[in-house]
Design a protein that fits this description.
alpha+beta; 3 domains; 9 strands; 10% strand; Phage head morphogenesis domain-containing protein; Phage_head_morphogenesis_dom
Length: 455
């Protein structure tokens, strides 16, 4: 039988799929609430007579009908079901391992006090209701000032409240997730005598956030101190981000650590192995390595994808300890990557006229010569050829032009394969001096014109 901690990790993957279905149900409930409320508001507007002369009263009447959905009963049910799910760990263990249960009063308190990004669900909804009242009043005044008809005003209100419906859905889904996180952590703390540490488990797909990609697989001890890293403990949705799909799983102690004698000799079919090891499932970093270049680029973006495929960065290099995502310039400085030469820094002599022409803000040109050469060895006569091409380009400003396929970038060179009639554009971003390249399967108009002139 698999180790107990591995069984927990696998159970939580299945549980996360159930959470997605629960969230879909909540999403539909919120949508119906708003659709009904919008229909009621439209009906009220259509019944109004002479709105222009009674605008203040109309606004006051409609504001009274504006509300946000009350999902407290749904949240309580969700919280109780989550605790029932956690008690199923005992069946996996073949023994009553998690014996402490949260009383109903504690569950209610956690539901009412659960926070997402520093505020309770109730506080978020209060803010949302205040916002939709302001938006309704503003839009009605704009519509009346434009001389819109009553049906047009009704349509205007429906349109403006669509944003509030989306916001309410995000609050409901994230609030449900935050409550799940709070219930889980309170349950684990109530049973901390059997817990060794906590592990962050993210969803392995391209929608996972940069923060969760980096946190996947990290562990903390029972006092929430990092184990082998410097990232602070975070409860998914509570202090990660909206619509977070990650979860915290417990890693239990071994039988020996629990002080239970004789369990290692118990029949293997009646219990799972309690070895105290952290389950070595695939992290997001490991998973991404198995994906296609297209999937990696879709997940990370082109610049970070190239660095990741070269093995120069991991998911945890992409964020700060505060959870902020680093831009490419900050990443280059942090990891000391991309710069040319053995010293990691190479200064090109860049004419002032070119610097001003393309708005280049640095004397340091960065890029991965090795990656570019290894990707397209047929295009260059060795790595030194790439450096020479760039130097030549800076001495021939006439061939520099804006890059149509790289917003804000400039093409500074072209390299061709005469036999296959393939070519690549080499470009530069003026803000940070980062070199990029664009693959082309055939010569472009510039190159055809150039070759024609050579003949």
């Amino acid at each position: 039988m698999k180790p107990f901690n591995q069984l927990i990790a696998e159970l939580e993957v299945a549980r996360s799929l159930l959470h997605e279905r629960i969230k879909n149900g909540l999403s539909k409930k919120v949508a119906k609430f708003y659709d009904d409320m919008i229909a009621d508001l439209q009906a009220q507007i259509l019944k109004k007579k002479n709105i222009t002369n009674n605008l203040a009263q109309t606004i006051s009447d409609l504001k009274q009908s504006l509300k946000t959905p009350d999902l407290r009963k749904d949240f309580l049910t969700l919280a109780e079901n989550e605790q029932d799910h956690l008690l199923d760990y005992n069946e996996l263990a073949g023994i009553v391992l998690f014996s402490s249960v949260l009383p109903e009063s504690s569950i209610e308190r956690l539901v009412d006090s659960a926070q997402l990004e520093g505020a309770t669900v109730k506080a978020w909804n209060n803010g949302l209701n205040a916002d939709q009242k302001k938006r309704l009043e503003r839009e009605l005044k704009i519509g009346v000032s434009l001389g819109e008809t009553t049906p047009m005003l009704a349509q205007r209100i429906a349109h403006v409240l669509e944003k509030n419906k989306r916001d309410a859905t995000a609050i409901a889904l994230t609030g449900a997730g935050a409550i799940v996180s709070e219930i889980r952590q309170a349950f684990f703390e109530a049973n901390e005598d059997v817990i060794k540490c906590y592990k962050y488990q993210a969803t392995l797909d391209t929608r996972t956030s940069a923060l969760c990609r980096a946190y996947d697989g990290l562990t903390w001890d029972k006092d929430y101190k990092p184990i082998g890293h410097d990232f602070p403990f975070r409860k998914p949705r509570v202090n990660t981000h909206f619509n977070c799909r990650s979860t915290i799983i417990p890693v239990t102690k071994s039988w020996d650590e629990l002080g239970v004698d004789g369990m290692n000799d118990a029949p293997k079919g009646t219990r799972s192995s309690m070895n105290g090891y952290v389950p070595q499932d695939m992290t997001f970093n490991d998973w991404l390595k198995t994906q296609s270049p297209e999937t990696i680029e879709k997940t990370l973006g082109k610049g970070r994808a190239e660095l990741f495929m070269q093995g120069k960065i991991t998911m945890r290099d992409l964020i700060t300890q505060q959870g902020r995502v680093l831009d490419l310039g900050e990443l280059a400085k942090k990891k000391k990557i991309w710069e040319y030469s053995k010293e990691n820094i190479k200064h090109f002599d860049i004419p002032k006229g070119i610097k001003s022409r393309i708005g280049l803000k640095t004397d340091k040109i960065r890029g991965s010569l090795e990656y570019l050469f290894n990707k397209h060895p047929e295009m260059f006569d060795g790595k030194a050829d790439i450096v020479n091409i760039i130097k030549d380009v800076f001495n021939a400003p006439d061939i520099i032009k804006p890059a149509a396929r790289r917003s804000g970038g400039f093409i500074i060179a072209k390299s061709i394969d005469d036999k296959k009639k393939k070519m690549i554009d080499i470009g530069i971003y003026p803000n940070n001096g980062v070199i990029f390249h664009i693959n082309k399967r055939k010569w472009d108009a510039d190159m055809r014109e150039f070759k024609k002139g050579k003949q």
